[in-house]
Design brief:
This protein is an alpha+beta fold and 94 residues long. The chain has a single domain, classed as Alpha-Beta Plaits (2-Layer Sandwich). Helices cover 37% and strands 32% of the residues. The chain has a four-stranded antiparallel β-sheet. The longest helix is centred in the C-terminal third of the chain and has 18 residues, at 58-75. It starts with a strand and ends in a 5-residue tail after the last strand.
């Protein structure tokens, strides 16, 4: 399995819109991607959010980076900035 983590900073006043758009639009898009395993969105309530996307293959995980970038540019432009992206092979899980 491979995973991608994305950390975003945003105005907390936009948190509800961001949470809703991710749940209603982005999650269904990712679920259709080949090798999709799971997606999580964490909003700390203070203007920092982080996502974790898990795929069965490296290519799926790498592809999700492009999908996420395109989706943010078209759905949350000006609200979510450029994320810090970390990706790699899952070495432990439970």
């Amino acid at each position: 399995m491979y995973a991608v983590s994305r950390r975003y900073r945003f105005d907390p006043a936009n948190a509800e819109k961001i949470d809703r758009e991710i749940q209603e639009s982005f999650v269904p898009l990712l679920k259709k991607a080949p090798g999709f395993v799971a997606y999580f969105w964490l909003d700390n309530g203070n203007g920092v959010g982080e996502s974790m996307t898990v795929f069965g293959s490296k290519s799926g995980a790498e592809g999700s980076v492009s999908v996420a970038k395109f989706w943010v540019e078209h759905h949350l432009a000006g609200i979510l900035g450029t994320p810090e992206v970390i990706q790699g092979e899952v070495k432990a899980h439970g």
